[in-house]
Amino acid sequence: MKNKYIKIGVVALGLMSFGLTSCSDDFTNLAPIGAVSNESFWKTEADAIKGANGLYELMHDQEMFGRGFFWYINASDDMITGRTKATADVIKNFNINGSEGSYTSTCYEKCYKIIRRANDVLLNVSDMEISETLKNRVLGEAYFMRAFAYFWVAHTYGDDTNGGVPIVTVDNMFDAGGSYARPASVEENYAMIIEDLKTAADLLPLFTEYGAEDFGRPHKDAALAYIAKTNLYWAQYDASKYAEVVKYADLVTNSGSGRALVDTDNPATDYRELHSHLNNWESEYIWSVNSGVDRGSILTGVMLENKGWGKFNGWGYYTPSEGLYNEFEAGDVRKAVTILSFGDDFRYFGEAKRYQSENSLSGFQFNKYMYEFREADAIGKTVNTNGDNPTTVYNVPLMRYAEVLLMKAEALIADGKNGDAPLNLVRQRAGLAAKTNATIDDLKHERRVELAGEFANRHFDLVRWGDAQATYAQPIYGRIYDDRSNPDSPYTSKIVWPARTFDASYMNVWPIPTKVINSSGIPQNKNWN
Description:
single chain, 10 strands, signal, cell outer membrane, two-stranded antiparallel ribbon, mainly alpha, SusD_RagB_dom, Starch-binding associating with outer membrane, TPR-like_helical_dom_sf, 37% helix
């Protein structure tokens, strides 16, 4: 299916006050800037659409959903940093204090830029004299994107010990910089996120009601799915939220948009083509980073073999662990689609190849994001011509229907109920036998193998399950080959990342970037110093 994405409307003020100002780029400095004032802009339907389009600009930022937040996910046991990089290493080893200066340093402030843009839309579009249908959609987009940005910044940096992250809405967006306090608990953030998403769900159309020109805008199912996930994260503090997970997962299923797994009873083909641009807009993809040959998520190239076997500038980060590889059951078609191991067949720029790597530090590579590199004429057609911005036409998933099913299964099991039905839909698509009376360990396994290498966030799963400390106390193994240029070379399983000290008394959240602490005056998360 042809890839489409929303083009960002650019106006003279750089979408008015949509950028945060000051030399420190302080997220609490909310003064409008630019040559065009709010009074001269918010007039027409075209203005409202441009305002909405500006909400998505940072979705394409390399340090948001290209690398950015993925550096935190890379801390998990599923992968290692595939190249020697000092800053990447200290993140994975939990040795940062917020002053690392790159990689994760801008995730926080960029989330607040999205929040500011959303607040501007909510402030101005509500009173515009435009079509009610368009007004509702644009307001729904703003509520969704505000909630989505808060979802990421809240669970990454907030908990019930340090507090949540500052809540900035239309009501207080013009308060003095430095006046924003952290709420007592991240639960306050979760409550706000859910209220925003409920409003968004009421205002937004179903995806099936959009024309192709609007593919990539949030829709009702995306809002409902993130209500379910926010409740799942909230449930670590309040078990009553599991019932809400089930409720909203079912609302996604029954929304009328035809949500379903990509499943034609051909497991190997289904799962391979699921992770490709062929299914960008199909029933399983609920929310993604809309991508193309000129912009989008760079994760596809970040995971590619370093220097791409001499044909493309792959970056070689985030390489799978042997533990993840061994987690797959016999007969699970997801294994070959997810991971390349020495000797595995694949196509690359028109050439039939067998996997080997002289660069991978673990002896593996993620294969999920490789489909668009298959054809001889891929560059400029399905792959970016610029290897320094290695996007493809595959929309990197942030929320799939498979995760909605697994969230429901987890919530049911955690509530002492039977989660077999949603769990087994996912297993059946993978060509596996059904589970009977599935346990929480079955759920943890299924979530790990189904969502491996995705923004579903294995690291935070381990944190919220209380498994991170024990998991990270074990070293990570890879495969060291005698001849890394030979696909048939014998290997030895060796430690490729040593055991790490994870102190669950404070490491369940990450340190807030120092520049944010310095400019906003909010307190740093405890013990990150």
